[in-house]
Amino acid sequence: MCLSWINGWRRMNALEGQALHEPSEHASHDSPLILPEVHRGTELPSTQPGMMVDAVYTMPTGSDELQSVWLQKYHPWFPIMHHTSIVSAFSEPSLVQKAITAVTIWDIPGLPLEWRQSQSEKLRQEAILAAMPSLNLASIQALLILAILYWGEGSWTMYSNVIAMCKRLGKTDRDFHIKYLQDPPRRASPHILDGRNAR
Which tens digit of pLDDT belongs to each residue from 30-66? Predict the structure, then answer.
């Protein structure tokens, strides 16, 4: 029973892998993600298993929905960014926006699975490639956000690699260290120190 489930899972992954490597005539590596406009009662184009949806989707309020999903579902247990930083990240295309979109696109109802997978993969690759040469806080935040996705998928190797990149970027980013190391340490109140030293 378990063996047949594993074989079925492998076949499904192979089909998805084939679909991901097919080039899309509508894909642009520099363009922001365009989500489909989903109306209740309207069906999206159907696909056969392993086939890509060959349609251009548009949703003007997509970033608001993605931002809302991030703040409600992911931010409470992974608060690496302040609420205002998330809002500003969605005001214009950014590395953090791509990373958040790659994670939250799975939570938008009514989108075909194949389209979600291809968009998430595309955004992950773009975010990682853009984060590697740039040494700044946004790069580290974007990589940490992507680490959530790899961890959730059980891709432990990718998760470990992304976390290692974050560590390296954090250690080599001089401005990052100066900004956060110059903050004065929080001081304990004198009565706590007295109680700790008294025996």
Answer: 444 444 444 333 344 444 444 444 444 433 346 778 8
- Cα atoms in the 13 Å half-sphere on the side-chain side of 29: 8
Distance from C-alpha of 17 to C-alpha of 158, rounded to nearest angstrom: 16
Q: Are 73 and 86 in contact (CB under 8 A)?
A: no
Report the candidate in 2, 58, 65 with the shortest Cα–Cα distance to residue 31. 58
Would residue 31 count as lying in a domain? no
Angstrom distance (rounded) from CA 114 to CA 127? 20
83, 128 in Cβ contact below 8 A?
Answer: no
Domain that residue 118 falls in? 60-183
Rg of the chain taking only CA atoms, in angstroms: 21
- What three-state secondary structure class fits 58? coil
Tokens of 153: 């998928």
Task: Specify the 3-state DSSP secondary structure of 166.
Answer: helix
Total domains present in the chain: 1
- Distance CA(105)–CA(52), nearest Å, equals 16
pTM: 0.55
Residue 38, CA distances (Å) to 10, 42, 60, 110, 172 in order: 31, 7, 11, 7, 44
